[in-house]
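Bench log. Compound arrived from synthesis this morning; before running ITC I wanted a structural hypothesis for how S-adenosylmethionine sits in the protein. Inputs:
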Amino acid sequence: MEEQDLKALSEQLMKPSGERGIEVANMMNENNIGMTVNSIENLELKGNERILEIGHGNAGHLDYLLKKAEKLQYEGIDISELMIQEAVRINKAPIANKQAVFTLYDGTTIPFEQESFDAVFTVNTIYFWSDPAAFMNEIARVLKKGGRFALTFAEASFMEQLPFTKFNFTLYNLEAVQQLVDQAGLTIEKTDLQKEHIRSKTGEMVEREFVTVVIKK
Ligand SMILES: C[S@@+](CC[C@H](N)C(=O)[O-])C[C@H]1O[C@@H](n2cnc3c(N)ncnc32)[C@H](O)[C@@H]1O
């Protein structure tokens, strides 16, 4: 891939838009489903809980999440208008049943009151947080006391091998995440390191290492 194609791919991963954005979102949902499932499993959801997902992409995984327990309430927020449209198109039934709502927001201020959620999760978005410490504080604010936050991402040592991450991505290791968690007054409860085989965004099969950090308020 040429530099300009890598840059365009990176922009789509950060904020999908246009016709290409729909394709990129389908590919993300397929390629990242192992990470998303791991994030959801680590939340250990219980009946009647209210859950926030940050940066859901096309939310092709919502049916899976809603089967984890009875009467779950899901809220999804994303910075991409296209991803909100796609998530709404793909998830008509849970929206009609009032189990799911998708909301466009500015990527900075989470549009909910304090202590709104039992569980929060996000997969492959930390690379794009513009002010990571302030954003971790926002997550802490909307979590109920005793609430859980599953933060799923691939560490810098893996991500820096991917040619498109030199554009737009900020890469993290576990030490940097520990600092973000500490300054927000939260606690890391578990670090779940995983390996899987996937086809990379540029076509080759790669072994991907990723981690879900389970954080508690
Ligand atoms: C790389 S995609 C990941 C999508 C999905 N979570 C996955 O892992 O397949 C990043 C998604 O997060 C959204 N996004 C980027 N920055 C965000 C932010 N600060 N807050 C919420 N969503 C964000 C993008 O619009 C996109 O839908």
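What the model suggests: The pocket of S-adenosylmethionine is lined by residues 13-16, 28-29, 32, 35-36, 54-57, 77-80, 83, 107, 123-125, 128-129 (CB under 6 Å). The chain has one domain: 3-216.
ITC booked for Thursday regardless.
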